[in-house]
Amino acid sequence: MNLVKKLKISSRNYVTQFFIPKHEAANPRDIEIIQNYLCDKPKILVVTGAGISTESGIPDYRSEGVGLYQRSNHKPVQYPEFIRSHEIRKRYWARNFLGWPKFSNVQPNLTHKKLAEMEKDKKLLHIVTQNVDNLHAKAGSKEFTELHGNGYKVICVGHEGKDRCGYSIDRHDFQKILESFNQDLKEKAEIMKSESFRPDGDVEISSDDIKKFYLPQCPQCMGDLKPNIVFFGDNIPMDRIEKVVNLIINSDGILVLGSSLQVFSGYRIILQAKELGLPTAIVNIGATRADHLVDIKINAKCSDIMKEL
């Protein structure tokens, strides 16, 4: 066996051990059920969650035994805290700065690629993702809505409403700015590529590193900068919610992949689909908030199902 193949197998085993909860292999009947469910639904609306990205090496929050909440008492930063406290913003960005080189290098897996193929073959209407990791775009999908935003863009939140300056910058470009202000931590950011990171791409670092970190302000209005994601405690923009509602109305069914639907923004999609009498199906390892509502629930790893479709 050549070295490249050994490294790929080693990487796959590492991901399975640390990011994917224990599960049984998908059986032929499960695959047949989903195949039959999709065969007469060319306008299926696919909802994806963290469970499809764990196979790329991005940990999730809630999976049994391997999710961040299971392995530590860490809680993600809350939006009101981020807006209110310079120290919390500084801590967030210092951790994100050191985690970005590895997080941004994560690649899509079979499920992302399969969904991109389905879109190309006009076998789905749209993807609504709860993830902020940009992996659907990397896989080649075009028709997707990022319910909670995207960590690959940085925006100014220094002013509210009409007075907001509208400044934004690509996260890769912002990383270069952060490097210019934090040369002593730049080398450490490269070293951290070998470390594990949290679901949103940040890493655990020392209080000394946080103290040394310099966080620049918006160059247009000197306001505060944040990634273009919906933090816990924040609200999804109303135009995005309205878009998803219209997608549900125009679909012929819902397929949830890799989400426990514990966050209401995802659970609400199932509630709205059931109100409209639409068929619903879930593929996820472990229980979900909507198991009692859906027509089909398959307890399996998403790629085990998707690779056979």
From TrEMBL:
PROSITE patterns: SIRTUIN. It comes from the Eukaryota. The keyword Transferase applies. Residues 24-309 form the Deacetylase sirtuin-type domain. GO terms for cellular component: mitochondrial matrix. The active site is at residue 148. One of its GO terms (molecular function) is metal ion binding. Zn(2+) binds at residues 156, 165, 218, 221. Keywords: Metal-binding, NAD, Transferase, Zinc. PANTHER family: NAD-DEPENDENT PROTEIN DEACYLASE SIRTUIN-5, MITOCHONDRIAL-RELATED. This is Deacetylase sirtuin-type domain-containing protein. The lineage of its organism: Eukaryota, Metazoa, Ecdysozoa, Arthropoda, Hexapoda.
